[in-house]
């Protein structure tokens, strides 16, 4: 029962010799230390020989700490992937396969083929035969298209057939085990079918029942059938499985949802000859006993195998003799992905990846792409993967320069949503420029994905260079929104007017909405906010959390008080809303009295509203003896609060608690970015006394950086 947290905290200081970031939020120092220790040793940041406790030839730092690693980041030239797939780290990789949940790639650079081969082995073990459920990539200004699509495709559970996934010349042992089990299961199924057919044939008439006919068919077609994989993520695949979101062109029909794709190769013949890639020597991809002729073809597959058929991940057009021109489709209806100019464009490299030649493995449930420019062809590749990525639950696309290519991504998600086993629930899209008005994009998304639970759309600026909507794209504002499962809606407007009339259809279709966040919107007229409140009351009976950020509410005091009176809301946020810019002392008193009478409000967040000392002290009256408030959390960050004001607030709060017999619901106070460094001694006393009353979260912020705010609040 004795906590070891102080010991791990001291170990951090002794071994890491750095101050941990966000140390206030660390809940388990043991986990934090061991994960950071593993990463630093792997990337050569920490010299083990520098500490006498670690400098032991019988001690393997990677092996010792690997069972405790749930998150791993690979950087730059992927040196960590090479190290982890080295023969002497075999046990380390096995430990990671069981413990790792989040795999991140950061600041990647182009790398040579041996490094890529190591990456393939690593992804295959950690994702396809491991426990990784989230893949995140960030800060890749000039991405290597082939490497990017490789990571995406393997995260989606796809890789080529044959024995490409091998370790020092030997095929993957786990794949061999799966294959043996599948063959054994298939044989048992065939024998059961034959037995059932024999037992039923004695009393059958000539026609027979459909069930017996199926048993006879199983007996006749006793070849091995692909059983479901042990991992549920592999147990289903779309009847619209790629390519082109509808069917696999040039090959057999894809299996139905009742016949999952396994991770075992299916032999397919092709009549097309391989054509050499332009500007490079043609390599033979002739197969012999299941092996590729050249061992270097492990990764060369990414360049050339897709030429065998029409189903490469990156679009291409053919007009050779005897072949039809190939069009990429974007929905299960088979319509081309031509909603925007970015989707219509075709061409590029000659097929990055062939889903037709690929095998299906376990896939991740969360994909995050931060600050990685996505070209039109990369978006088409991602769209094609998304169309059958049935295990995917969360997708985050942040600052990818999508522009018109957002429609291509939506087409893949639309195809995915039509799959009966679709688990997709959360979509977050943020970018510098908006290709279309925010509300129009929200309507597009909800029309395509009614099963979404969380939708976040965020843009910094309007796209002035491309302000007009492409003519070939019908306006999403005219699309009817089906009833949705939406629970969380977050919209960050690029300084666009908030027109309630455009938001109304979304709210009407979202009866389950529990949380709404509106950021950086402008109110075109004083009546707009009043209309919004009426719509929220009418259309969203389950709304619990409402947030306004950077919305000027200085002239909307009446509406602010109405929101604070709402008995259905449990959390209200007015962040940087200039609440007290032109207000009187009476307005603050009305806010306090309204909150005192509201027993349903649990959290009130008022960051960035220039409360100052005197308004903070007044807020302590929310917890006076005559109050019926149930307020638990109060956020007064970035409010020009000084140490003497905080101390006075603390004393007043102590007085109210004493009057109420020591019982108040207040438990959390947030104080980020206030001027507490101006008098360290007074601030420490105030914080010490506050922490005896509630949980306080603050930071060591340099208030000298806030000189402009100081001048404006004088």
The rounded distance between the terminal residues' Cα atoms is 53 Å
Q: Quick one: overall form?
A: globular
Structural class given helices, strands, pairing? alpha/beta
- Spans of at least 5 consecutive residues with low confidence: 203-312, 314-336, 338-353, 465-475
DSSP helical segment count: 22
On the 0 to 100 scale, the average pLDDT is 78
How much β-strand is present in the residues? 5-15%
* The CATH C-level class name of the domain at 554-713: Alpha Beta
Query: Which homologous superfamily in CATH is the superfamily of the domain at 554-713?
Result: Ribonuclease Inhibitor
Helix proportion: 25-40%
CATH topology of the domain at 554-713: Leucine-rich repeat, LRR (right-handed beta-alpha superhelix)
CATH architecture verdict of the domain at 554-713: Alpha-Beta Horseshoe
Taking all Cα atoms into account, the compactness measure Rg is 30 Å
Which strand order spans the largest sheet, edge to edge or round the barrel? 1-2-3-10-11-12-13-14-15-16-17-18-19-20-21
Record field, number of beta strands? 21
Keywords: Leucine-rich repeat, Phosphoprotein, Repeat, Ubl conjugation pathway
Protein name: Leucine-rich repeat-containing protein 41
Overview of the structural elements:
This protein is of the alpha/beta class and about 725 residues long. Among the domains are: about 70 residues, no CATH class; about 160 residues, Ribonuclease Inhibitor (Leucine-rich repeat, LRR (right-handed beta-alpha superhelix)), CATH 3.80.10.10. It has 22 helices and 21 strands. The protein has a 15-stranded parallel β-sheet with strand order 1-2-3-10-11-12-13-14-15-16-17-18-19-20-21. A two-stranded antiparallel sheet has the order 4-9. The longest helix is centred in the N-terminal third of the chain and has 29 residues. The protein is globular and about 80 Å long. The two termini are about 55 Å apart.
